[in-house]
Each structure stands twice: as C-alpha cells, then as structure tokens.
Amino acid sequence: MSGRAELAAVPAAQHHLVATALFAAVVLVTLAITLWAGRRSRAAEDFYVGGRSFSPVQNGFAISGDYLSAASFLGITGLIALYGYDGLLYSIGFLVAWLVVLMLVAELVRNCGRYTLADVLSVRMRQRPVRAASGTAGVVVTLLYLVAQMVGAGSLVSLLLGTGGGPARSWTIVGVGALMVVYVTVGGMRATTWIQIVKAVLLLCGTALLTALVLVRFHGDLAELMRSAARGSGAGSAYLEPGLKYGATATSRLDFISLGLALVLGTAGLPHILARFYTVPTARAARRSAVWAIGLVGCFYLMAIVLGLGAAAVVGSAAVRADNPAGNTAVPLLALDLGGGAGSTGGLVLFAVASAVAFATILAVVAGLTLASSASFAHDLYARALRRSDERPVTERQEVAMARIAAVAVGALAIAISLYAQRLNVAFLVGLAFAVAASANLPTLLYSLFWRRFTARGAVWAVYGGLIAALVLVAFSPVVSGGPDAIVPGVDFHWFPLENPGLVSIPLGFLAGWLGTVTSRTRADPDRYAELEVRSLTGAGAV
Fold this sequence. Notes:
GO biological process, one term: plasma membrane acetate transport
Mean pLDDT: 84
Radius of gyration: 23 Å
Shape: globular
Subcellular location: Cell membrane
Largest sheet: none
Structural class: mainly alpha
Keywords: Cell membrane, Membrane, Symport, Transmembrane, Transmembrane helix, Transport
Strand content: under 5%
Distance between the termini: 58 Å
Main location: membrane
GO molecular function: acetate transmembrane transporter activity; symporter activity
Low-confidence stretches: 1-13
Order of helices and strands: HHHHHHHHHHHHHHHHHHHHH
C-alpha cells in the first residue's frame, strides 16, 4: 500500500486537526520570534548581522539550522531510501564541505568582510563592477537554493493533507514565500538567527527520536537494518554497492564526480553561510562557530543514513517512489509506519510531528536565504554598484528599506520559479545551487585572499565566467528538457549530458579569473593586498 493510500485510511477530521494544529504552532512561534526581534532591529548592522551579538554556540546552532535544509531532511533521506549507497554520497559531500569552510574561509572572511562577500573583495578592489558581479551572483545562488526549499514545502504539505498536488501544493509554495518575506522584512538577521536556532534543536531532536525508533525496530542490529533495506529496495545487494544511480554509464559516473565537486566546494561560496560568520564579534568566535556546526551537522547526517535505510526497510523503496518519484516524502512515511501505521493514533501523531519539523526546517532556511539575497541586492547593488560616484551616498535607513523591498521581490520570483520545478528532488536542486556557488563565488574568494596579482578584471571575469557557464549548462542539460521528469517535459533541446554542471563550470570559473587577471592592463595594488593579508590573518581593522 502506498503512503498516500495509507493516509486515506486515516480519519480525515483527525488528520487535518493534528496537521493544522502543529503547522499553526510552528508558524505562530516563528512569527512571535520575528515580532520580538523586529523591535530590536533598527540599524543596518542589526538588520544584516544581528548586531554581531551571538555567541559561538548560538551561531553554531544557527549555522547548522541554516545548512540543514529540506535537501538534508527530506531529499537526502529520500535518495538513500531509493538508491542506497549512491544516495549516501550526497551526505558525505555536504559534510566534507565544512572542512573547506573551516580551513580556508571562516576566520578570514570574518576579518575581511562586513555584511557580504563583496565586502571581502572591496578591501582590495573598490571598483563598482566587482560589487555588481558579486551581488548578482549572490542573488542567483540564493534564488536557486530558495526554489529547492519551497519545492520541499509543497511536497511535504501535499503529503500531510493527503492531496495529489496541484492547487494545494501550489498554494503551499505561495504561503511559504509570504512567510519568509514577513520574517525578513520585520525581524532581519536577529529574528532569522533565533528561528534557525529553534529549528536546529527541533530538527536534531526529531531526527534523534525517529532514529531511535528505527534502531529499536531492528533491535540495534545495523547489519540486519542494512539487509532489510536491501530487500525492501527491490535491488538486492546492488542497493548497498556503488552504481545504482551513478554507475550505470560513463556519463552517470561523471555526473557523480561533478556533484561531489559542487557539494564539497560550493558551501564556501554560499552567501547565506558566509553571512553567518559576521554575526559573531570576532574571528575566533567565527572559527568556533564552524567547529560547532561541523559537530552538529555530522551528527545529523549519521542519523539521516539510518532514516534512509529505515525508510527502504520499513516502507519500501517502491512505496516511497510511488508516493513521490523523487523520494521527498520518505521521512514522513517512515514516521507514519514507526508510530503504528495508518489508522493508529501514534502513527498519525508521529507523522504530523515529523512533517512539522520538516516544515520548520524549510521556514528557517528560506528566511536566511531571503535575507542573504536582499542584502546582496541592497548593500552591493543598490547602495554601491548602481550609484555614480557623484551621487549622494545612500543612508543606512534607505539601504535597509531597499533590502526589505528586495525581500518581497525575491520572494515573488522564487514562488514563480518553484511552481515549475515541483517534480525535482530537493537535494538535487540544492546541488545545482552549490554548483553555481562553487563556480562563481569560490574562485573569486580564493583568488582575492591568496593571489597577490589578482585584479578587478579577474574578479569580474571569475564571477560572470563561472555564473554564466553554470547557468547555460543547466539550461541545456537533462534537468530542463529531454525527459519525463524535466522542468519542461515534452521537448528536448539538451546537448550537455550531465545533470550537475560543476565538473565543467567550476574549472571555467577559475580559468576565467586567471585569464582576466593576466590580460588586465591595470596591475593589482600591492599595498591593498598587504592590507588584506594583515587584516585577514590578524583581525587588525576588522569591523
């Protein structure tokens, strides 16, 4: 029996009552936090970085709350349930990425920047084109990530309410978009951070509860869990071996390499993650925040592996796929079965709790993404890149007002795109966002921090070269056309064979930055690089 058929057996009144109560509780709590924080967010520093008043522990929880998105809780677990070992590779990529952040990014970015990635670049390069390029890339990356979260929200509520999608799923996406606009425009970074902290605690506790129930079901025998998952997958021993998803052809193996590069390198270029390091008072606090985040994220992914195997063993891969072809609803279906199955009070309550935790996850992440996107537009584009040198500088009040307007515009655009991408796995969509971040933002950041000769032309070429390459390759990939699960089904204009562009677009971003630098007529200013080097390593002059 499929998950949706099981849900049909649950008394409709009970089902909707529990679902509505839990979802309403999540929304009310987050709105209360937003209104409380909104009264304390007045200056630009309060709006963008919460007054830099958070401790390393608080920021570590907030970072994990920002990072553990719908892709982690819904998408990765679903991929493990469907593809076993190959699905597990997603979680490894997400976790290993934090070593890059800890070693190369956290402390240096905190010392050099103020609100956004462009602030780091402007220490050496104060030209408007650099701000324009970096701000544009920031908006695009966060928009792609937003689409993934909102698609996850649509799948989740569609399952919870027992609807087949269509209007119910679409209205869910609209509702999540409206809520994220309220969070950002009213509460700013202070509200967003506390929402992420609360969400991280709920997510870790909820995941731990489900993990414990799975282990109890199999008497703590992990070997039996894996054997049962292999049987439930329908693929036998191939489920526990590499190749079920990415090993069939040379193209699929290259796609896996491309995905791995994007996941490992993309985190260090995500605007909403970089912004989190500005919410603590010092670079040392930023590094300790990253350490806390690594521990929390690592614990979560270990539990996600158990949940994915549990979904294959208990629910069955065929039932998960029948309910949602991308596997986005594997966790709620597993919760329903662990609680006693359809028709039981325990199953209904546990199912609703798991869904509410996932919904809180989505709300927290979309708030952080919207804030990062609006900051890129208002702080980098509106206040600096789009203004002539002879114009009067923008005041903090005007900049924050524009950031709030940008949040509304970004929310509307994310809603429109999400309505056309509902068939795609949310973890896969996040992989695309990581690829764009690794292609456009990471080369610029690393060159700026570590290459003395890097110039403004190199920065602009690196950003646009990686960004345009990634977007063009995605547009002409099987993701957009050429298959029944494509964004535009029924037509085929794809010529790029890989679903993730990272294998090609990331080297192109680094190559474009190098070419722009070596062909630039203006040499890099050695004094400005020396200033950045001292500031990044010692914190002297840091905001």
